[in-house]
Structure formats: C-alpha cells, structure tokens
Amino acid sequence: MKQRSVKVLFILLFGCKISQLAAQTTSASNNLIAQPIPDRTVFFSVSDSGVSKPITWGLDLAWLSESNIRRGIAFMGADRVDLVRSSFTPTAPLVNGTLPSVELGRLNERLNIIGLLGPNTKVVLNCDHPNVDPWFVGNAARWAQLIDITAKHHEDKGRTVVTVSPFNEPDNTSTGQGSTADFYNICGELRKIARLNNVRISGGNTLNNDQALTWYNALKARLEEGNTHQLAGTFDTYASFFQTVRTNGDHASNDELHNVMEAMVGVEYGMQTGIWWGTAELARGEFVKASHGKRLGYDEHRPNWTAASVYRGIDGRVQAFSGASERQAATTTYRYVSKDRDVYYDGNGPQREYTLVMPGGTGYQVGQPNAERVVNVTWGDDIQPVIKGKYVLVNRNSGKVMEVPGGATGTGSNLQQGTNSGATYQQWNVNPVDSRVGGDFSYYTFTAAHSGHSPDILNWSLVNGGNVIVYNDVKGANQQWYLDYAEDGWFYIRSRHSAKCLDIENGSTAVGAKIVQWDKNGGEDQQWRFLPVGAAIEFDAPTAPNNLVATANSESIRLDWSASASSDVAGYTVLRSETATGPYQTIARNVKSTSFVDNTTTIAGTFFYAVRAVDNSLNRSLYSNQASATATGNKDLVTQLSFDKNTLDKSLHLNHGAAYGGVTYTTGKAGTDALVLNGTDAFVQLPTNLANQKEITVATWAYWNGGGIWQRIFDFGNGESQNMFLSPSGDTGQLRFAIKNGGDEQRLTSTALPTGKWSHIAVTLSGANASMYVNGKLVAESNAFSISPLDFKPVLNYIGRSQYPDPLLNGSIDDFRVYNYALTSHEVAVLAGVMTSLDADCNCERNVSVWPVPANDALYVGYSTENSHRMSTLTVLNMEGKVMLSKDLPSVSNTELNVSNLPAGIYMLKLTTGEGTFVKKVTINH
Fold first, then answer.
1. Where are the alpha helices (DSSP H) in 115-139?
2. How many domains does the chain have?
3. Which of 148, 278, 529, 606 sits 20 to 30 Å CA-CA off 911?
4. Over residues 830-858, mean pLDDT
5. What is the pTM of this model?
C-alpha cells in the first residue's frame, strides 16, 4: 500500500498527470514554427543603440533613361538622391574646344533629366564609352579638356560636380580607354584645371573588383577617391578594397551598384558613396532610408556572394534586408533572430526567427535572378495582417470593392469599384511573387479569380492618373505591387513600376468609378482592406470582451475572459504592456478561445493585459478591462514533453515544441510514445523563453543510435558564442554538458552515452554548482560554474539540433523536462526510476494531509515544515489548469478552503513550498 501511494505522489509531483489543458486553451507557443537550419544568421535587438554608417546615395544616368531616374526618385525620395552619375563622351573630337553636336545633344538630354532632381543633388562624372575616338587615345590633355568642358556645362545648369572618373571599367580593355599610365597622366592634367581644384578624382572604377587595388595603387598618388564595381571577382577583394581606400585616407565609392548586397557589404567595410545602376526599387529605396539610421545586425556568406542586415531608420522603423550578387551568387538561407523581443516579420508572428532564402545561380551569370528583398519588422498594438490567399479588396473611402467591369474575361478593361455582390470578378488571388521573379522580390501579384488576368499599369505609365487595366498575367513590373501598411487592417497598394498607389479617380464613391494610380497622399480612397471571400462589407466594430482575469503561475500568466456578445467574432487579439498606461504589444492574434497562457513572461515585473475582439471583416473592438499579474517564480516544472505522438507540453505553462523534418514516434520509455529523430533533417524547436532561468534542471530519457560526434540531446543558446548543450559524445568521446557566454566553456564530462539502449540523463545548475546524472547516478559535478542561462537568455532552443554545424541527433527522446530549479539527487533518481520510495530528501508526503476526501463545502489541508521562515502557497486548479482558488500558508498550518462555490468535479490541489511543488488530486461533491 505504501508503494502504491508513493507512485501516485511521484506521478503528481513530477507532472505526468498534471493539467493536460483542454485543446481550447492556447499559449504563446501555439505560434511556434520550427525553422530550417540556415546558412547564416543575423542576430539583432530592436532596443540596441546600433552602429551609424552614413552613406551618400545616388542614381545613375550613365544609362541614359528618364524612366530610371523618375522611378529612383519615387522609391528613394527626392530628398535622398544626393548624387547623380552623369557622363562625358569621348566618341568624337572636340571642335574648337567645344562638344560636337551629337555629343552636346546627348549631354543636354542628360542635363534635362537631371533637372528632375532637387537643387541640392550633386554630380559625379565618368566616361560613357560606346567607343573611344582615336583623337583621345593616349592624349591626356584632350581627355582632361573634355572632362572640363562637360563639368562646365553641368555647373552652368546650377549643379556642383564633386567627383570625376577619367575612365569607366578600364580593366575591360575592349573599351579602348587606355592603361593605368594613361589614367595617371590624365589625373595630372586635371590637377592643372582651376575649375576642378575642389573636385575629387576617382579611380579606377574597375568592372572586376579583383583588379580594383591594382588600378588604385598605381593611381593613388593622384587620387582622392577609390572606386570599384562588382561585376566579377571575389568577395574578399571587394571588401578589402574599401578597407584599404579608407585606411589610405581616401573616399571609398561604388558608383555602379547592381544589388542591395553590394551596398550592404560596401557599407560594412567602409564605402561612403553608393550609386544605383539602372534605378532603385523598393528594397534599394528602403535601404537608402534605413541607412541614415543605425545598423542593428549584419552577416554575410562570402563564398555565396550574399549578405543580409537589419537597420533601424531615423523614423524608428526596423527593416531586414537581404541581397545576392547580380552575377555570382549561390542560393543562401538567412535567418533573422530578434534577441530582445517577439516581433512580426511582414505580419508573420509574434516570433523571434524569420527565415529568408536568397536564390542564386549555378555559375557566373548562369541562372542568376539578381535577388534582393526587404522585410518590415514591427511590434505594437496594430500589426498588419499576413496577406496570402483569395480576397475581396474593399476601398476605405467608398466601401466599394475592386472589380473587373461586367466580369469581362478579355484584356484591356479599366478596373473600377463596385458594390460587392459576391461575384468572382470581384475576387482576387493575392500571393507573394516567386523569389526568382527577377531582382527585388518584395512584391505581390494579383489575379482575377474569374479570368486569371492581372491589374496592369497601362503603357507602363509613370504619371498620376495612369489607367489600371486587366491584362494577361506576365509578371511584368507594372503588374507587381507592394503592400504599404496604413493602419487598422488597411493597406496602400503600390506599384513596383511607379511606386504610385491604386486610387479611386477623384475620390469618387460612385459605382463604376475608375481605379487609377496616384502618388501616395494619405487619402482614404487609396487605402484597401483584404477581406476573406464571404466576409460582410461592414465597418462596425464588435463589442469588447469583458471580465478579463489574469492568474499568476510560477512561469506564466493565464488569462480568462468573457466572450464578445457579437455574433461574427473571428478571434481575439491579446495585448500586453509593462505599465498600466501602455503602450500595448500584440502577443497573440486569432485566438479562438476565451483563455490564453502567456508563457513569455518573466518574474521580473508586473504585466498588464487587455483583449480585443476581431470580426470577419477585420474590425477591432475596444479594449476589454485591464488585468495584471506577476509570475510568482516559485519552483516548478516549466515544461514536460511526453511525445505522445505530438510535441505538446503537459505542464500548465503550455510551452509546446514544434517539430521539423522527418519526426516520427515509437514505443515510449516513460509513457506511451517517444520521439524519433532520424539524424538527417529532424529536430524539435522549443519556446524562446523556456531556459531563461537562474537555476535549471534539464532531464530526459534518450536512446542514442550512435554516429558522429557532437550530436545534441539538447542545445539552448544564441548561436556559437552563447549556449548550453548536452552531447552524447564530444570530441573526446565523452558525454559532455557545457555552457558558455562568450568566453570559454564550463563543462562536465563522463563516459559516452551507450548506444542501442535507453538512458536517463539529467543536468542541474544552481549557483556555482553543476551536476550531471546518468540513470539516476551522479557521474560528474563541479562547484566552479559561474554562468547561468539567464545570463544570456537563450532564444534558439532545440532538442536534437546544435547551434553549430554539427550532426543532428540520431535517436529517440522521451519525457523531456525542464525545471526552474535544481532537482535533488533523490528527485533525479525518482525520475530515472531507480528509487521507488521517498527518503529524507523529499519527506513532504508525510507532512501533508488533506481531508475530507471527497470534500463537500470545505476542504482542509494540514502542512508543516522545518523551514519555519518560509511561506507556502496552496492553489486549487481545475483540470484545464485554470486557477480557481489560491491562498498563502504560514510554515505550520491547518487551513480551511471554502470550496462551496466550485462546481462538483475533480480538481488538482497544488502546494508550492520551499522544498518544491506537490500536487494531489481531490474530488469535490455537493
């Protein structure tokens, strides 16, 4: 009889049967999605002060295109176009010291286009060389005279010339410009011209950055600026070129940027001026704006010719960027990790990680999409919805929807607005473009549900009022759109080609009014909601939920509320603040139940909550009442994954995991089932706040199949410099637990884990003490540990996966547990099943009495402890984990709980003491 009672207490004590919450209760971990193993990771913190890397930006007019300049202005903003690259043309001899008519005409065309730019935009000059007339070849004075005349024409138009580049891509010898000696001589002649005294001479503007230093070093005695393009060469020489130029005290430039990658890398290594070849679209324009703020994170893949970064602009917006060399990139997976808070990536979240695959080619200019991308990183009360699927597009001003007139299936009809009828010609498939669409892939395509045709800017117009028709979906830039979030579920829909917004002509509210394009002006006739097909077109907010109650647990806070009285509620948004006055942060969306467990809290402070109802038409209610709570921090089981054919947490904190790859299940060791990891692509990702503990125990059953060293049973960290892990066999062939925080590892080791059999492993950390157990036996210990996981707050937490490029675990895991305190040796032994009775280390069963059983209106609890200075907490929870009653107890107590108001049923009685947490199941009858 004694043995049976101990077994029951063991089950309750260690959580095997504690509060499997009903499926309707969700937590922050329900949003967790396991992310693939990346090639590179960009860590950032939105609260960081960041690094300032100021850049002067420009547009290119060596490619003589008014459209490119207009588009660049639209995406960068006129006030951010600091420079324009113009040209001189050595294609015909000068005539009596003047430009020949053809060359003068070409220059005047450039000057007229430059007139579109603001008065403060300055000019850099380089050589436009479709061919070089023999009159110039080898004659430095004539080259200098041509440059001087061209500079004067620009000055006569009120422009300041800041840089001249005698040659452009001279390492491409087919251009016939000349040698380094010719370039050097031209520089000498330029220095004799008074007009150019304050103008930098730039060189060598090489095509291949492997040649950049060769030209620069030969010329640097007569240069003030080093310049290279990136159309061939290695990443190493591209980066080192800018470093060398800056070290030499010269200005560092790339006046022909073909991808945001080149800009990010250049900025990182010292580039001071960047000019976009062709034009600037969304990612480039946003990078220009962001670069005036602070860089928060950066990483690169040199062999793959790719890079990624995170910036906070001067307006406070945070954006992630990624790019791949126009001609040389290989496909690269980048992971962005927010270290200090949950965020939303283009509306996806809340989460810490976001993975972006940058496509590349298979060789030099083979299959290269010149890919680049910008992602908005946001947080707060109002978060943009994720857009992907079939929608009805509703105009904010008129309440009408975008439609194809009369449901025409041919091409050429101008889009208009109409009253929603549920017709398929009013429905649109909206999806992100393929990453290989060509260049920037930050856009969406829209196709009519009834015809498959796409909205199209007629004749590639760049003017306000340009018509928007439907046309064959060919994925042209005039058929791609980006979503500029306004507020409260409303977006501006803006063109990849023109950056203008879809706009109702003249702000009309009439049926049949045309849809045109127009500069963004903030008008409601430019704002659109993406409503699910079948949702009502209405703008009445649902009633607010009420009776919000926040209940503190040891490592989480449970929220319960009364449902909104409205009949069309689609879900609830849960908001949290660290102060009673806000601002609120959205910590969950689309919650379908009226309960939620916030397991991202810490014990550091009080949190304030509110809930809003959201209907099918995206209308948001007012806030519920505010409720607040502080996690108690009591000793507790933080998570228990029993892997009964899922990765759900059985503790009341609902710290669910997320599986990735070929995860399967087999007969369990401690329960019904166990997790099987195949060692190839499978692992489990755990919540980001799980291991934020000053003290910790991690315990699990493991069945190792053997294989390569450095596999992981678990690994909690922030990359290679901050982590704590357990490996069945390290480089010395031993079982190893290690923890590090930027310095050397602190470790415990023992005999390698045996293969082909189940073993129970537990690791405890408490202050300077660390212990490791195998099958309930202490196998290693130390009192010289100085690091706890709370010191670095691990975000990337895995079962079976490493922070390093190590092999994945080949084996099985069962009953994976994390506690927020160090278990005693006896408690570990009980978990391992090598003890079947409780001894003096855990004598609480004999100190706790509960009567009567079953209870009626009153339940009595008696408890005593030798630790007379400690208080205890008694809690009654229902079988869904909701706290029904809670009471603090003195060290010696017979206490009465009034349970008359509780419905009859089975409850969990939880006693939290200085020795640990003890749970008994009780029945209440009335």
1. none
2. 6
3. 606
4. 67
5. 0.90
